[in-house]
Write a structure and sequence with these properties.
This protein has nine helices and 23 strands. It has 418 residues and is an alpha/beta fold. Strands 1, 2, 3, 4, 5, 6 and 23 form a seven-stranded mixed sheet that branches. It has a five-stranded parallel sheet with strand order 8-19-9-10-15, with helices on one face. The protein has a three-stranded antiparallel sheet with strand order 16-17-18, with no helix packed on it. The radius of gyration is 22 Å and the shape is globular. The structure holds flavin-adenine dinucleotide (FAD). The site of flavin-adenine dinucleotide has 32 residues, from helix 1 and helix 2.
């Protein structure tokens, strides 16, 4: 029988979140291992489209003890640059990563946890779940009614327009992934229909600065989980409709319709006969999105005024309203239309099928308070609004890892019982 390994703490996942935690555990002299099913930055290597650039500027990817030192702080990393950045971080902090090790189960023991992997088992007192928030694409239940002649891809499977069969493309979902993918395919000369549900429009540049700069500077990204009215709702808010492009242009629905993309409402269902049904709420969705953008910019203006940041900034401005045709189509016969591919950009969810500890709520979501999971010695990293609005961003991992490693250290010292 293979020997059982021992570690004080096991971190599951070597994305930036697991690595940030590793660095903070090292700073506290807490012995640990980071178990990773693939290579460091595995999801960036295997689950993103080729042309992806970060939507956060280079300066904003700050990790504990590591940051951007190039000459383009306001640029946006390409995919190879992101992979290189995270791999370089693992090297710089000498993270104790064991690659090609898939965690198959985590269970309680009398003294902590038993972490089983395909490369042997580990006993430990504390576990950090840093396995990512975007493991599985969310796809509507009616997706299997799509006629067989139409190819179906998730945003995780999409790589580039050349991969697609000739013909039109229906992209479902208009947050950052959906709009970026629709933009690329439209620019490749394909007819694109974009199905638009709830989304949040955002200008790339506001008052002469990157919107992310403003959200960082006025504290929006630092808002804590215990400061917002409805944290469950805040954790479900879709990603901002932003893209990182060399020309720093705004990628919104107006930019897409200018190129020729056709907008339809949220995909509400597909009939047995393969008839797609779109919600009649497109105009309302867009009006609401414009309203939410206005509220965000109003808040930025108010805080910029209060802090004096506006003295060096350009005057406030607003984008023209989203243009939507008077009566957008409510249906489309997929079997007879020119659509040959559907891309689901309808969000992602984590995969904790291997977690055999009773920490799930009624909806199957891991129960936690700011990343402290409802099982002693277990912590979560990298999920939407875990402790702060920025928690799911690369830039959010540092503060969260500092807080949670402090909690973990106190737990190991016997200071925290639950
Ligand atoms: C399309 C897209 C674009 C994004 N753009 C930005 C952006 O511009 N800026 C930004 O700051 N953030 C962005 N994000 C958000 C965020 O940075 C990523 O989701 C990031 O990958 C999350 O980091 P993580 O370390 O929490 O998880 P991941 O990077 O997913 O890392 C988790 C690791 O755990 C491993 N793992 C999972 N299960 C197991 C298992 N059972 N056993 C062992 N290992 C396991 C995985 O292989 C993976 O390497 C984007 C996310 C997506 C999906």
């Amino acid at each position: 029988m293979a020997a059982i390994h021992q570690a004080t703490a096991v971190v599951i996942g070597a994305g930036h979140a697991g690595l940030a935690m590793s660095r903070c555990l090292t700073d506290r002299a807490i012995e640990h291992v980071v178990l990773e099913r693939g290579e460091v930055a595995h999801t960036w290597r295997t689950e993103r489209w080729d042309s992806l650039r970060l939507l956060t500027p280079n300066w904003q990817s700050r990790l504990p003890g590591f940051g951007y030192d190039g000459n383009d702080p306001d640029g946006y990393r390409t995919l190879p640059e992101v992979i290189d950045f995270i791999a370089s971080y693992a090297k710089a902090i000498s993270a104790p990563v064991q690659t090609h090790t898939t965690v198959t189960s985590v269970r309680n023991t009398d003294a902590g946890y038993l972490v089983c992997t395909d490369q042997g088992d580990w006993r430990c007192r504390a576990v950090v779940l840093a396995s990512g928030a975007c493991n599985i694409a969310r796809i509507p239940a009616f997706a299997d009614r799509v006629p067989p002649a139409i190819a179906k891809l998730t945003a995780q499977q999409y790589r580039n327009p050349d991969q697609l069969a000739d013909g039109g493309v229906l992209v479902v979902g208009a947050s950052s992934s959906g709009t970026q993918i629709a933009h690329e395919i439209q620019r490749a000369g394909r007819p694109v229909i974009l199905s638009v549900g709830e989304h949040i429009r955002a200008p790339r540049i506001y008052r002469g600065k990157d919107l992310e700069w403003w959200m960082d500077a006025v504290g929006v990204l630092d808002e804590r989980y215990d400061e917002v009215d409805d944290i469950a709702r805040a954790r479900r808010v879709p990603s901002l409709q932003l893209a990182g492009t060399p020309d720093r242009s705004t990628l919104d629905l107006n930019a897409l319709t200018t190129l020729g993309t056709k907008l339809v409402g949220r995909l509400a269902g597909i009939t047995e006969e393969g008839h797609a049904q779109f919600a009649g709420s497109l105009r309302n969705m867009c009006a609401l999105s414009d309203l939410k953008m206005g509220r965000l910019l109003d808040l930025i203006d108010e805080r910029a005024r209060d802090t004096g940041l506006d003295r060096a900034a350009e005057p406030p401005h607003r984008l023209p309203p989203t243009r939507v045709e008077e009566s957008p189509p409510l249906g489309l016969n997929l079997a007879t239309s020119r659509i040959k591919t559907i891309i689901w950009a309808t969000g992602y969810r984590p995969d904790y099928t291997w977690l055999q500890v009773p920490v799930f709520d009624r909806k199957g979501v891991v129960s936690h308070v700011g990343g402290v999971v409802a099982s002693p010695g277990m912590y979560l990293m990298g999920t939407q609004f875990l402790r702060r609005r920025k928690s799911a961003l690369i830039d959010g991992a540092g503060d969260d890892a500092r807080d949670l490693s402090a909690h973990l250290a106190t737990y190991l010292d016997g200071g925290v019982r639950a």
